[in-house]
Amino acid sequence: DGLVNSTDFFEFLNDFFDREIDSRERPERPIPSGRVGATAVLVAGTLQLGLGIGLLAAASWQKGLAQALAAGFALALAIVVYDRWHKKNPAAPYLMGLCRALVYVVAGLAATSTLPGAVLAGAALLFLYVVGLTFAARFRWRGIGLLIAGISLLDASLIAVHAPALLPLLFAIGCFALTRILQRFVSGT
Predict the structure, then answer these.
(1) Which residues contact 135 (CB under 8 A, 6 or more apart)?
(2) How far apart are CA 170 and CA 57, in angstroms?
(3) Are 86 and 92 in contact (CB under 8 A)?
(4) Which of 15, 63, 79, 108 is least crowded, fewest Cβ atoms below 10 Å from its Cβ?
């Protein structure tokens, strides 16, 4: 059976912060079920964030390390704030949107020391898309899996408009298809 299954793997900090609610509402989750301890989950989640910051530092070493690291720490903080306070928080959709938008900002700063307007515009569009998606999920809209996969199509659209390159465009479209296929095995929630 293992300690975690495929639906648990990338939710470490979320599981840590939701452990009390999960013990009442979803006792099958990894911590309440006893498959893994809360401290181990916190350590694993913290190590994931640290690894991300370390990889960002390595990728941006020559291109503006300070800005990229500042954005990376902002993203890590936004992730922790979201994971800690998302339950029944009216600002949660905006926090999730901020997390996703900061991914664009971090990636842009890892590649160059100044952000092109297209990256900022893409981050703003992604923010709006994810806020809408998160509200749809909150109201249990049946097509949420399609909206989640649609993030890849937003990426593809931005690539097509701002940096027309066939391989990245095809990759983004392929990610949409792959997400839809994988949602047959892992629910898009």
Answers:
(1) 93
(2) 28
(3) yes
(4) 63
| pLDDT at residue 188, rounded to an integer | 65
Q: What is the pLDDT of residue 1?
A: 35
Among candidates 188, 185, 123, 181, which has minimal Cα distance to 154?
A: 123
| pLDDT value for 115 | 87
CB 157 within 8 A of CB 115: no
Which pLDDT value is given to residue 187?
A: 72
Q: What's the rounded Cα separation, in Å, for the pair 170 and 160?
A: 10
Burial of 29 (0-12, 13-18, 19+ CB in 10 A): buried
Span 36-67, pLDDT tens digits: 899 999 999 999 999 999 999 888 877 767 88
DSSP 114: S
The C-alpha atoms of residue 48 and residue 68 are separated, in whole angstroms, by: 17
Q: Helix H segments across 60-165?
A: 65-85, 92-111, 117-138, 144-162
pLDDT on residue 98: 96
pLDDT lower than 50: segments of the chain? 1-9
Taking residue 65's Cβ as centre, other Cβ atoms within 10 Å add up to 17
| Residue found by looking up tokens 């659209």 in the block | 157
CA angle in degrees (0–180, nearest 5) for 65-71-75? 140
